[in-house]
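Re: the request from the purification team.
They wanted to know what the chain is likely to look like in 3D before they choose a buffer screen. I agreed to run a prediction and write the result into the notebook, where they can find it.
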Amino acid sequence: MKKILINILILLTPVSLPAVAHGTEPHAALDISQAWARKTGARTASTAVYLDIKNLSEKVEKLLSVGSNRASMAMIHRSSEQDGIMRMEMQDTVEIRPGATVSFEPGGLHIMLTNLDEPLKQGQLFPLRLTFEHAGEVEIFVEVTGIAGLEKQ
């Protein structure tokens, strides 16, 4: 029953509104939007999460870590092509300059979730924790989309 109530609350959470995080310092403000991940198959154990993070403060902000109760491991990665081969490198942090937006998107930065607790189904929402140097821990909801992803707004 508790799981059903939690799922209902998640479904009632508006996805199109940005998550705005205000940390303990007045300058630590972020606009986090467009968070999505593709649906997975029954045998798929991992997925990538994509989103946009805008730094509304006057100080450099850093994304330090990520986590989700839907996966046993979450990491920040960057995909790149080198000599015709796609490579994925783990990132310790991601810097977001004042006024800048950093986009996590296919073929670039993304959050890798591995060992999913169950397949992701289109239309679901799930929580993702982002920990920042100044803003602290911020929880957002990720929308599970079809194979085409989320249309940028």
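For the purification team: Residues 2-145 form a domain with the Immunoglobulin-like fold (CATH 2.60.40.1890).
Please add any questions underneath this entry.
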